[in-house]
Amino acid sequence: MKKIGILFGMENTYPHAFIDRVNEITKRKDIVAEMVQIGRVEQAVDTEYDVIIDRISQDVPFYRAYLKNAALCGTAVINNPFWWSADEKFFNNCLAVKLGIPVPKTMLLPSKERPTDTSETSFRNLKFPMEWNEMFSTIGFPAYMKPHDGGGWKSVYKVTGESDLWEKHEETGQLVMMLQEEIIFTDYYRCYCLDGKEVLIMPYDPLKPIHLRYATEPKTTGPAHKKLMELIKKHVLDLNQALGYDFNTVEFAIRDGIPYAIDFCNPAPDADVYSVGQENFEWVVEKSARMAIAKAKSNKPGVNNCTWGTFMQSSITKSDILKLRQ
Ligand SMILES: Nc1ncnc2c1ncn2[C@@H]1O[C@H](COP(=O)(O)OP(=O)(O)O)[C@@H](O)[C@H]1O
Ligand SMILES: [Mg+2]
């Protein structure tokens, strides 16, 4: 009997629907799904799971360490805990540029406060002053300032000018922030990507209250809309195949018909029926159940069964990029 587990925190709808869907499909004959149960975590000792869907280890370091050991022992962990530990938004933007996917112009800012247990000498490699004028004139104002490794709209600021930026930067403590060009968009989309091949493009209005964000219609229609959807799908696949995420969302802001990737480091993306709506929920439950079953079937005992993106397999080369674009 193969086992699929799901690790989760305060979510109430998706995990149970996922478990039920897997068990309905497999009829619990040769594959069964359940909530992950942890009684003991011992080094290099196998877990009982062929596949684990991870929805929470970003907030619980104990689980992240448990998952790395599970991956070492052969569990296909969705998403790869090693890569997720290394990844952050600034790097994702850098990779997008190399892949030829439009992203807002972005700069990385040193944190307001020095990290704990460091001294002034720890920042001595920074030029004094740094090239602020060049940075600000490249990005322009208004701009967005947000953590390079964040999520859930925490510490996301819109800054109107230099003095506003410094005032807001005061509040950011030890967070490493990015300064990003504002994309004034006509449409916005949020896209699920599963298994590096399934894409669901959802119109999304980030300016509405949370419960209404998915209740929106795109403004473009007809052939232009169709072309845009094809382009978005291609960008979503390119990004996720390069990053190696099995389960992720990518957000795009559309300006002058060009989709700019805004936020694509969401490896435990919101999948609550009450926010994404019944139709999108059904899609994500079904596709993720099918993905987990396929991974359980193809799991080879004792080897690393996690997904490694093309970037991790070899540093990305021009020929990889060309292959991705085909
Ligand atoms: N460069 C940008 N241009 C326009 N809007 C942005 C930009 N960056 C962020 N936003 C707005 O802020 C929201 C939150 O930022 P995002 O990068 O998605 O952070 P989080 O990972 O916390 O969700 C986005 O959904 C979008 O509405
Ligand atoms: Mg976001």
Structure description:
Residues 93-294 form the ATP-grasp domain. It comes from Arcticibacterium luteifluviistationis. The chain is of the alpha/beta class. Among the domains are: 2-85, Rossmann fold; 105-181, Dna Ligase, domain 1 (2-Layer Sandwich). It contains eleven helices and twelve strands. The strands form three sheets. Strands 2-1-3-4 form a four-stranded parallel beta sheet, sandwiched between helices. The longest helix is centred in the C-terminal third of the chain and has 22 residues, at 222-243. It is globular, with a radius of gyration of 21 Å. The two termini are 39 Å apart. The mean pLDDT is 95.
Annotation keywords:
326 residues; binds adenosine-5'-diphosphate; 4-stranded antiparallel β-sheet; 4-stranded parallel β-sheet; Dna Ligase, domain 1; Rossmann fold; binds magnesium ion; alpha/beta
Bound molecules: adenosine-5'-diphosphate, magnesium ion
Q: How far is it from the N-terminal to the C-terminal residue, by CA?
A: 39 Å
Please describe the biggest sheet, giving its number of strands, its sense, and whether it closes into a barrel: 4 strands, parallel
Oligomer: single chain
Top-tier CATH class of the domain at 2-85: Alpha Beta
Strand order of the largest sheet: 2-1-3-4
Mean pLDDT level = 95
| Beta-strand fraction estimate | 15-25%
**What is the gyration radius calculated from CA atoms?**
21 Å
By secondary-structure content and strand pairing, the structural class works out as: alpha/beta
Examine the coordinates and then state which fold CATH places here, giving the name of the CATH topology of the domain at 2-85: Rossmann fold
Number of strands: 12
Shape: globular
Helical percentage: 25-40%
pLDDT under 50 segments (min length 5)?
Answer: none
What would CATH call the architecture of the domain at 2-85?
3-Layer(aba) Sandwich
Helix and strand run: EHEEHEHHEHEEHEEEHEEHHHH
Distinct helical segment count: 11
GO molecular function, one term: ribosomal S6-glutamic acid ligase activity
Organism: Arcticibacterium luteifluviistationis
Keywords: ATP-binding, Nucleotide-binding
Protein name: ATP-grasp domain-containing protein
